[in-house]
Amino acid sequence: MKKVEAVIRPFKLEDVKLALVNAGIVGMTVSEVRGFGRQKGQVERYRGSEFTVEFLQKLKIEVVVADENIDSVLKAIAEAAKTGEIGDGKIFVSPVDSVMRIRTGEKDDEAL
Predict the structure, then answer these.
(1) 103: in domain
(2) How many alpha carbons fall within 13 Å on the CB side of residue 36?
(3) Residue 62: which domain range?
(4) Tens digit of each residue's pLDDT (9 = 90 or more) over 1-15
(5) 79-110 burial, b if ≥16 CB within 10 A, otherwise e?
(6) Domain presence at residue 106
(7) How far is 2 from 14, CA to CA, in rounded Å?
(8) What predicted TM-score, i.e. pTM, was given to this entire model?
(9) SS3 6
(10) Which residues of the chain have pLDDT under 70?
(11) How many folded domains does the chain comprise?
(12) SS3 (DSSP) at 20
């Protein structure tokens, strides 16, 4: 099993969600996060004054998938989240040792 964490632009959430559902993913966790990458924030204007927003708002989507589904999930997220501009985000993949569904006690693949 793998845990996929994708940091994306907020307005791309619905596109990514639909892509994941079409890829067979039935559950995900979404968190509002802030951060910066290569663009190191952005300059904004408010009432004639310029200021730098160092930490940009992003969303982090987390899903745990079976090993055989990882390629289709990565492709679905990447295609749905891409705008072609700096700041589109990143996808991280980590191994997951075990999963347990609290309600039923199912473990690992049955819990997904």
Answers:
(1) no
(2) 11
(3) 2-94
(4) 999 999 999 999 999
(5) ebbeeeeeeebeeeeeeeeeeeeeeeeeeeee
(6) no
(7) 22
(8) 0.83
(9) strand
(10) 39-46, 50-53
(11) 1
(12) helix
